[in-house]
Amino acid sequence: MAGHCCGSEKLNVGKGDPRWRRALWIALGVNAFMFVAEMGAGVAAGSKALQADALDFFGDATNYAISLGVAGMALAWRARAALFKGATLTLFGLYVIAATVWAAYHGSLPAAEVMGIVGIMALVANAAVAIMLYRFRSGDANMRSVWICSRNDAIGNIAVVAAAVGVFGTGTAWPDLIVATVMAALGISGGWQIMRLAVAELKVSRREQPQWM
Known about the structure:
single chain, mainly alpha, 82% helix
């Protein structure tokens, strides 16, 4: 149905299109706010799944910031920004993994109610961003990737809500810890891949620089 309704709408948009930039600014604000809110709620509620899910918001906010700030810059600067993003995402993932291992031995039962409420808020936020960016899904690779990331993040939000139901139903922290471990591992993997690509692009940019005798 969605494809049929929007299939005839061929948007001729580019990186300088004001609609695209406005959508990115809104998405950046939503994701930055939700990263802070979800990470804070995760720490307060003792939920490692919420903290892991916050990594998605951090990654997306950084993606939008890079798209807005360095998209028109030289390859070397874009690669350096991506390298910083990948390193930070990896460090956050390692923190969540360490916190999850600690919680498995010493942690208390997370607050399932807080997990559920914040998880639903995160799902609504990601769904709203995905809907807003849906019109740009047929643009260039950058535009498509931004929309796909928002769409896929909603799956992580659903996993957090499921973990909250699991914690409430079983009376144990294991659903929260399992979801946190999987999501943090994905964050680390994504961060590592980003760093590898960034390093490769830095090498290309150095080769393209003029050689002075």
